[in-house]
Amino acid sequence: xxxxxxxxxxGGLCLAQGxxxxxxxxxxYERDPAITARFQGYRLVLSPVGFEALRGCLPLRWxxxxxxxxxxxxxxxxxxxxxxxxxxxxxxxxxxIVIDRQVLRHLLLTGLTVRTGAALTGYDVLDDGKAEARFxxxxxxxADLLVGADGVGSAVRxxxxxxxxxxxxxxxxxxxxxxxxxxxxxxxxxxxxxxxGDEVSLMLGAMRFRxxxxxxxxxxxxxxxxxxxxxxxxxxxxxxxxxxxxAPTAQEAVLSRMEGWHPDLRALIEQAxxxxxxxxxxRVVEPRERWTPGPVTLLGDAIHATSPTGGNGAxxxxxxxxxxxxxxxxxxxxxxxxxxxxxxxxxxxxxxxxEAVRHSLAALPAFVPNPExxxxxxxxxxxxxxxxxxxxxxxGRPGGEPPDSQVAVER
Length: 411
Known about the structure:
- The chain is of the alpha/beta class and 411 residues long.
- It is built from 13 helices and 18 strands.
């Protein structure tokens, strides 16, 4: 069996690794001109399901390395005001596992064949039941199964299921990262919490590696090359519906909305890496009508893109990869035919993928700025404050984000 994976995101790469481990040929095609064309280094919160799906697709010999490069998250789930006073709670704190997307992507790329600059222009189902993919540049490729793992704007989905389209929620968010210095470590209670301003919300999350990734790879899996990344704080600001930057850079746009905020919060944005701060729209794709069964299917954001406020986008894509891997192994072992295996995958994926999208949308209103709602509730919330203005250390519970936290601005 041969599988063509369109898209070198986490879901597509995880699937390719899982198929490779099962002895199934898998080639990956990426429209970007190079693997490093776009920075993809923000932290992710992995649920137990997502983490086990990832482990299931990786070689056993890499499991110690994976365990070494993740971090632990602890969630206070607090609501703080811009002076770091506690004004409410989002829910009970829970624990989770965090991993850096760029580090994980380099791990998943190891040993795979990836053709970059391969923008899909369409595909055909041939008389023998195989799928032939066509690209803007380069020769077409034929495979027993074509998997569209090419994101919210999926070119595969446009052909396979044109009635399934992305919906823009109107909400925007700016995301970036800042080295975790001693000063910013004092923001611990704010990690995993929502900082609620009058017109914006800010979320912070720490990425602390158990072992520096580059060092871990050299010691535990020399065939793997991981980037030399150190601990950092991932921050994200949600803007009002249809909000735009209104400033030359993403960094300046955030600072312009933080007038009078706690000095440590402003310094966190001021000292961020400007090259890795960006404005993103929140768009969703909800799986609805099933397409006609055939040698083409979809995975990850291409079929169930979630709002990042659900914290379940990457987890669901990894779950897809592991499920499709297991279904295709059944086909290879002749326990069922290929179309039956793909059908089993799609039935399950549509159910939990649709639920993931709905969960993420239900979480979104809690983080979309609403000045009128804040004005009405401000007096009551201030009365509940348990943290003095300007004090960070010792306030609330340890920070971080739970696996499926509504605070988790993760994709």
